[in-house]
Amino acid sequence: MDNFFDSDNLRYAMIGSGSWATALAKLILNNQESISWYVRDDEMIDQINRTQHNPYYLSAVKFDPKRVRMSSDINEIISESDVLVFCVPSAYFLKEAERINISLDDKFIISAIKGIIPGDNITIAEYFNHNFEIPFSRIGVVSGPCHAEEVAMEKLSYLTLSSKHIEVARSMCDIFSCEYIRTVPGTDIYGVEYAAVLKNIYAVAAGVCHALSYGDNFMAVLITSSFHEMRDFLHASHPDSKRKTSTSAYLGDLLVTCYSQFSRNRTFGSMIGKGYSVQSAQVEMNMVAEGYYGTKCIYEINKKYGVHMPIAEAMYRILYEEKYPAYIIKQLSENLQ
Predict the structure, then answer these.
(1) Of the candidates 94, 99, 93, which has an alpha carbon nearest to the alpha carbon of residue 73?
(2) Where in the chain is the domain with CATH 1.10.1040.10?
(3) Is residue 199 annotated as a catalytic residue, yes or no?
(4) Fewer CB atoms inside 10 A, N or C side of the chain?
(5) Which CATH superfamily includes the segment(s) 191-333?
(6) Is 33 buried (19+), middle (13-18) or exposed (0-12) by CB count in 10 A?
(7) Measured between alpha carbons, how far is 208 from 265 in angstroms, rounded to an integer?
(8) Which of the following is catalytic: 107, 164, 199, 296?
């Protein structure tokens, strides 16, 4: 199998301008001389060029404008790049992807999107394979456990880079690794994409329970049960005898998303538990909580597989059926072990 990354002088592009995109752009620039960057807002481009900082996300990260070529034209950025790192919220992904009107035949796609496309209920890798006919051998996935805020602070963090072929995954590791980033290659692109969706749902649940004054003892049981749900869903939907769900890309990412102060999904869940409506919580956060969209996607996908997922179903009842959180969590608590 040919390794795309054996080519010389590959050009890299970041598609997206939020906190995770900003953090990953910082990492790529540790190993590459330059990067192209699709930023849809011309005013943001102006401010980054002028101040050397993203004005809205991870504003402490400094960029050298001489090493960053930005444009609000996604096709312009794609045309001048070989490796495309997509890092936009899943809820807005289709709007951006539909702007693409040039061929991706000679590109390598890396998804750093931690969500499923709402409505279509497919992952980003599946979308590029189905809609652009990109073979899975030219699609990679970035997964955690890793929060953008700690990357910005250069705290020791871990990333898993997955591809269908381990040699390609190892090459992807070279793109992001540095003194404070440890990278792990993997081949389970399906599992890590779905695990990234599921852990956000369970982080919303952790936030709801925290707001309802459930303690650490209950939280330990909740997250243990969440891990079992994740493992069972992955096994039912995409069986893989080599998958080790106790490793950092699965269990580790679940833990940090459920417990971290930086977890926007936990924050979102906490607001729901305090009585905020979904809409008011989204407005006040001014950031996307992927767990909200993922909850509905997994609920609909699981109709096919019938996996017993009481925690994910409880979140669906709270977020989409507008059931009273305290009542639903009390019901849930009576069935956890």
Answers:
(1) 99
(2) 191-333
(3) yes
(4) C
(5) N-(1-d-carboxylethyl)-l-norvaline Dehydrogenase; domain 2 (1.10.1040.10)
(6) exposed
(7) 10
(8) 199
